[in-house]
Amino acid sequence: MTGRPNDGDRVYYFGQALFKDKVFDGDVVAMGRALAQRYGGLDGRVLVGHHGGQVSNLSDPAAAAALADLARSARDGRDLVVVLLTSHGLPGEIAVRHPGMKHHTSLTASDLRQLLRPLENDRHVVILQACYSGSLIPALQSPNRIILTAARADRTSFGCAPGSNNTWFIRSLVEELQQGGSWQDVYLRTRSRVQGYERRKGIGIHENSQPQASVGGRMQGLWAGAGGPG
């Protein structure tokens, strides 16, 4: 399903590259394009990265304020906000390293809950592209939230080399969003596509990333393709 089945539904996008490598900027831009194609345009977007072009280099507090602004623009229970955070990761955290930083810091589950708090009354999809990102799902589950992660709690994700255009998970998700279908359809096809990349690269079943999903109780209609944008 593509387009906006309910008249008046609006779609907003916030994407942030939390690490300095260009591949993460590429993820942010590619996801914005795919969502705009899927929904026939976006009603608001904020693209945060580090290498110019289509992304803005915002401080972390300014980026969080921009996300809160999008949340205020979205009408509770009617509109959709899609959030992408892309970086490296460790169990229970997403790495943060901007140009000029000597060492990385991190966002913990508690930090992410705080970042996402303005969206609690909005329907929203949170996409976490990072190694071990599935470890963050239990702490972030919420009735109005779909969570998609690049990897299982105990697995790495792939394709995050600095010279890559996109990580494998985001490349797969973008390609499947462009093919249409419900968010559930897109997720299942994305998992299959990622597994194909990994298999061709010789990554076995004991190492593959195994992307994960969590669907809040109020998001079942959107997940299955009914009840709003999607």
Automatic annotation (TrEMBL):
Xref: InterPro entries: Caspase-like_dom_sf (IPR029030), Peptidase_C13 (IPR001096)
Residue ranges of the region described as Disordered: 208-230
One family name in Pfam for this protein: Peptidase_C13
Record protein name field: C13 family peptidase
Species this protein is from: Gemmobacter denitrificans
